[in-house]
Structure to design on (196 residues):
């Protein structure tokens, strides 16, 4: 296929029981591909000079923010190619309320800076990826208290102005999310980011 990335369908299991699957009939855009590294086949050149950020939790964010946007041809298969075991003791299951979950924001910030250095275009897709990642980050840090959420809102506002200030979207939900970040209403921020 000469694809940069082939995304396989997958299913989740826990204690020998399958409980959910995700099937990919066709990918519409780079932002539709899940950000985790597993369940994919990559062209080897996609990883030239790119690696997983070290010392961070959520280091696989590099797939969503750098590898996927660099791909020019994505294909998917409806065939289940991966079984993902739910690990009750893994980071995703145990991060609630841990300060280290702030890495979700810090790795995002680092990868945005890296995108800029390697010349990945900031366009509407990039803005939507940023907003979706902010939503993911919010879901990971929301148990750390209002002061932390307020500080992250300021951090995200800075990133929005620095990298995505002149980019617009026609999507109403994302437009509202941009307003929430730009004008700093933390209650609306939480509401919209749970909806993203």
């Amino acid at each position: 296929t000469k694809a940069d990335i082939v995304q396989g369908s997958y299913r989740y299991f826990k204690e020998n029981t399958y409980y959910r699957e995700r099937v990919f009939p066709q990918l519409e855009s780079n932002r539709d591909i899940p950000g985790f590294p597993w369940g994919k086949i990559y062209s080897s050149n996609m990883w030239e000079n790119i690696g997983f950020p070290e010392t961070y939790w959520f280091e696989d964010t590099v797939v969503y923010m750098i590898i996927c946007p660099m791909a020019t041809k994505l294909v998917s298969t409806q065939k289940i190619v991966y079984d993902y075991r739910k690990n009750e003791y893994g980071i995703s299951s145990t991060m609630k309320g841990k300060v280290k979950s702030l890495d979700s924001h810090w790795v995002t910030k680092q990868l945005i800076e890296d995108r800029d250095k390697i010349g990945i275009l900031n366009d509407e897709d990039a803005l939507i990826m940023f907003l979706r990642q902010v939503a993911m980050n919010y879901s990971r840090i929301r148990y750390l208290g209002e002061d932390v959420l307020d500080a992250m809102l300021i951090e995200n506002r800075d990133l929005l102005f620095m990298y995505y200030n002149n980019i617009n979207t026609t999507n109403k939900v994302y437009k509202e999310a941009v307003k929430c970040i730009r004008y700093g209403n933390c209650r609306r921020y939480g509401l919209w980011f749970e909806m993203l």
